[in-house]
Design a protein that fits this description.
hydrolase, 93 residues, zinc ion binding, single chain, alpha+beta
């Protein structure tokens, strides 16, 4: 595990804590910084972190506060409450 991936993990933790404390602007900055570090160092975001963030507005998604999660046959639908974008992920039951 290199320095960029350690920083991305730390920023993920900070973004989650900022959303819990209702500081959405700060969480958005942490997510944007983590994406920038991943792009610069060509290491990519972890799968769990990329699914918990909105691709359009960089907000950390927390069900019930910043996103709505719905189960549909064969997929999970996540809607961002900040920008209204929708993400669909396959799901096997």
């Amino acid at each position: 595990m290199g320095i960029p991936s350690e920083r991305i993990d730390r920023l993920s933790t900070l973004a989650r804590e900022a959303v819990v404390d209702d500081e959405y602007g700060r969480a958005r900055e942490y997510v944007a910084l983590a994406r920038r570090i991943a792009e610069r160092n060509r290491c990519g975001l972890p799968g769990t972190f990329s699914r918990r963030t909105c691709d359009d507005c960089d907000v950390y998604l927390r069900p019930g506060r910043t996103s709505r999660v719905r189960l549909r046959p064969g997929r999970v639908v996540v809607r961002c409450l900040e920008c209204g974008s929708t993400a669909r992920y396959p799901f096997e039951s």
